[in-house]
Amino acid sequence: MATAQTRTLSRIMMAPAVIVLLIWMIVPLVMTLWFSFQNYSLINPMMTGFAGWANYVYVIGDPSFIQSLVNTLILVGGVLLITIIGGTMLALLLDQPIWGQGVLRIIVISPFFVMPPVAALIWKNGFMHPGYGMLAHLWEFFGLQPIDWFNQYPLFSVIVIVAWQWLPFATLILLTALQSLSEEQREAAEMDGANAINRFYYIIMPHMARAITIVILIQTIFLLGIFAEIRVTTGGGPGYASTNIAFLVFRTGILSNDIGAGSAGGVVAVVIANIVAIFLMRAVGKNLDA
Amino acid sequence: MARAASIQTRIGFTALAWGIALLLFAPILWTILTAFKTEAEAIASSPTFLPQQFTLENFGAVQDRSDYFKHAFNSIVVSLGSTLLGLAIGIPAAWAMAFAPTKRTKDVLMWMLSTKMMPAVGVLIPIYLIFRDLRLLDTLHGLTLIMTLINLPIIIWMLYTYFKEIPVDILEAARMDGAELYNEIVHVLVPMAVPGIASTLLLNVILAWNEAFWTITLTSGKAGTLTAFISSFSSPQGLFLAKLSAASLLAIAPILLMGWFSQKQLVRGLTFGAVK
Asked: What is the CATH number of domain A56-289?
């Protein structure tokens, strides 16, 4: 059916999308690479020229880098752990015969539609504020000393906020996958005498594996770039305690106006994202074939 | 459900599910309630559940302090503008890939998806400098352009999965009847594709509305969207919890309503059609 004419036509129709995405992908990335090897500071315009690996040495050699890298991994890992386990359990619960399932779905998904700065500020001021936050009231009710969450446990606090936003997403996707599992299959297993635990391991989990992989993939893409939640709560602090790679690049490049070092950090972020992407694409690909 | 669940189990599961759901919803509910309290009541040492002194003055104060309507207008322009522009570019591309697939179509789709994996910070600095030099910083058209680019892969993927489900025979039949390509698109494809396009539009408006990296880094005062508007409340100034709650409610209410209507499409859109 693909005549020469339709082929030319479909190329023309795809051209705008392919061209803009190609430009979007290549031009800024090449510029980031270029800047990362230059002495380029907006504060000190006299300093120019080729820098070699100096920017990379400066960024990676700084203790803040290792800390940001570790923070990034803890942030992504922690949120994934909470949302996957919590999401699976919540999806299994919502799949049970319960009253008001439709309304429940809507209530549970709501946090996902709250824009990141709002989510962060609601938690920061309404819940985690040591003076008038809900948690402070709760602690006082039990006669405990209220916790100054963002100073004492900055990274943990950010993880809680981000997990609150993404748990609904994981739940919704996993619930959708769960509901596509055929009823006959479950009933057959039940008839054959498989108990709840066996049914979970041999019927439900294999069916859910693909959906879980997809949730991990998509969430990782977004979680590597967590920014607004940090920006409006801790500002990356105290010190670098809640700075991830994304925020470190922003701090170095935009706040400190060091274009060269910021770009080197940006390149490192791209490399990390690519490692994760390759790893995850392979996992998804394997799952898709099976 | 054919499963013979006893009434007790059903009550138990229902209670548990509602309990957890309300716990998850608590921050939003609390924000809604606080928005209608006075500042003094909002931070009272013995907190109240329902507003004792119902007031609307927080909303007025928020408008006076940071001009909600200007930011809301900016959010509407950027999210709707970028989605419409994305659809204009994405519909032809998705159409071509769905109805005239070649050997390379799958690769092209995967490549488009991979552009979405590039971390924004990797290109923040060049984009920032290009925008500064072209005087695009803090402008609505600059922001709309970026938002179009970051959502284009999702738009194309979503449209592709919807277009794939349109029976090809109908298009062939129209072609047999001598329909011109233009007519084929306008009179045959569009009516069948409208639901898919509408879902794509809805989801991408939501995503663009909530986007909080580029909207914060590339704007300051003039073109600030609601994400920037809320971020301006990040440093507390005196009594402000009730005002913050009012501002938050104003920023999330429209999208929360849209989200409730589009939750089914959300699954398909954000999993790139892998889970339906």
From this structure: 1.10.3720.10
